[in-house]
Amino acid sequence: HMTFGVQAQGSTVTLDGSQMRIDGSVGATGVWADSSHVKILRSRLSGAATSEFLYLVKLTDSTAEVSGSILEGAATGDFLGIAVTRGPAKLVGNTIYGGSGSDRSAAIVLEDSPGSAVVDNILSRSPNGIGQAISIRSGSTIPVILANDFAGYPVLLGGPGVPELTSIDALNRIAAAGQG
Predict the structure, then answer these.
(1) What percent of the chain has pLDDT over 70?
(2) What is the distance between the alpha carbons of residues 106 and 83, in angstroms, rounded to a whole number?
(3) Where are the beta strands (DSSP E) in the chain?
(4) Contact status, residue 98 vs residue 125, Cβ threshold 8 Å
(5) Residues 115-160: pLDDT tens digits?
(6) pLDDT at position 13, please?
(7) Distance between CA atoms of residues 59 and 169, nearest Å
């Protein structure tokens, strides 16, 4: 079965100093929101292994601020740490440990999310994991990406229509050219 930790629609949600364990046999989503304002501050979201998917934070048409938090993935088919569709995301000072997704794995996915920033985060993955640290989808502009530590991801930034960047130097070149 599938489980959800927090679900919101048209709401303001704040998790501050919270701890959440996310598990389900088939799939699980920690925080799911639509048309909402979501803040996750100084919190810990820990995922357990699932057979199909594990989404720690999945937001649509919502604004997101995630700061000073720890998000931990686990073994699954499809892993997303923080996924934001059609809304700006401010992701600052977090540690996101990616799950070992066998089909897809990304610490951060931004889709149609202009005005987003990924600053001073640690994005790490399990040794056997696949995927991208930051995945850009559907013509999203490349977010501000500053002072992050990418540990173990073979691709730091990529997505449809975005060249796969595999080094900090490549990210810096994009930022210097004014494209990030």
Answers:
(1) 93
(2) 9
(3) 2-9, 12-16, 19-22, 27-34, 37-41, 44-47, 53-60, 63-67, 70-72, 76-85, 89-92, 95-98, 101-111, 117-119, 122-125, 132-137, 144-146, 149-151, 155-159, 162-165
(4) yes
(5) 999 999 999 987 666 788 999 987 667 888 989 999 888 889 988 8
(6) 97
(7) 30
